[in-house]
Design brief:
CATH class of the largest domain: Alpha Beta
Largest sheet: 6 strands, mixed
Radius of gyration: 19 Å
Mean pLDDT: 95
CATH topology of the largest domain: Nuclear Transport Factor 2, Chain: A
Shape: globular
Amino acid sequence: MSDWRADTHTFLNALIRIPDSDLDAFARTMIGADCVWDVAAPVGRLKGVDAVLDGLIRPLRRALWRVHRRDEIFFGARNRRHERGNWVCSVTHYVGIHDRDLFGVRPAGRLAFVRSGEFYRIEGGMIVEAKIIIDLLDLMRQAGRYPLPRMLGTEMLFPGPATHDGILPNDPARGDASLDIVEAMIGDLHDFDPDTFHSEAQTGTHGHWHEDMMWYGPGGIGSTFGWDGFVNHHRASFLRAFPDRRGGNHFCRIGDGDYAAFSGWPSMTMTHRGDYLGVPATGRSMTLNVMDFYRIADAKIVENWVLLDYVHLFAQMDVDVIARSAAMDSHFS
């Protein structure tokens, strides 16, 4: 019997590399005619196969010479949320020489690892829905045209799982247990000290996070180590800027093996009440599209990969990070 998760994995890797002359016909073998793909700013909603090809796949193929996918995590399961359905998700990089503009991001003619978080709903062997966040801020950094102040955490390539087993783990029962741990953590995140930003239930013997937790954040934030690193290099600044943030509005939550993932579109609603990454408070209500991917070890979260639609977030602050980056000279020039 065919494995819909493995079939989707094979298809997506072939889609980005297949010869141009075969692309249209091949895409229609697994992308539903009436599909809807939501892609992070500035792309937006794409309806139908032609829109997906013209709005996302062909731009990636044009902008990155000899582009290919390098999947770090890829798994699938039945969605636990009310929409249900079968979903696959991935943390991947689109790898190639960035020698043409990609969605307005100017190239430096150098090797680029364009990180992407992706969720796909599968019905009858076809992709009928997708949500995708491509980290354009990190691509701007790689091109030498980073438009914001330096990142709070460490600027780095997203690594794969330390255990190197994130591709099609295929253990649904353990995946349910992994997702249980993540959902318990989500439930406790809103309980925190407003002065220290510490959450009592998150760490320690009975906490949800491993003492050696790795938190891999997107462009604009960077990556951190340990709970204190997470607080100091991301959480404190975010909660000062958006103290009333509310999350958890997820369209998908799935788990497989030692992995779990969720996404909301949008996931967060909040008010911009404090300065954030060089932008003064606007007092505006804002939303944020979010994707989180987790690895569990010893019943605790030990690795977390995070994709955030920051191009859209900053647009809500009247900051066009793509235009700002495009106006800069690359420091590689």
